[in-house]
Amino acid sequence: MKLDQYFYISKRTYKVRMNNLESPIYPKELNELENSVIKDCFAESVINERYQVGCLHHASMIRRWIIENCNGGNHPSGEIYISKHDLKTLLNLCAKVLQDKSKAEKLLPIETGYFGRGQDYDELYFSKLNYMLNLAAMIIKFLDENKGQHYFVVYEES
Hints:
Strand order of the largest sheet: 2-1-4-3
Oligomer: single chain
Largest sheet: 4 strands, antiparallel
Number of helices: 5
Helix content: 25-40%
Number of domains: 1
Strand content: 25-35%
Number of strands: 4
Order of helices and strands: EHEHEHHHE
């Protein structure tokens, strides 16, 4: 298992080359569609820009939730994409646990055997939840403010 969990906001950009092939003759009503499809259909390269926006250390409860809910229960072998919906769900779970700490073990349990650390629901556990709550809120706000810009959220461990 990995020690550090990183959160990134990524943006996928396509560099397009024009199609120099002659296009078939389209009916008049499809001219606009022809212009966009035929001329812009070849992606020359895909550019992924990636910006680290958060990092947690030994946050097994967050790791466990992401693996179970965003990666089908499979241990990560690289990047895990987190949807905005999943991020909102995680934010709400963090808020519920911070509001009623007795719900911690049920809603966001610590991953057993995680680096030899015990099952302590202590101040460190709750400070990591608070950090995740604030991080998730910031990312959701960013995604809302930049709709249509091809941004997405990535989780990775090292």
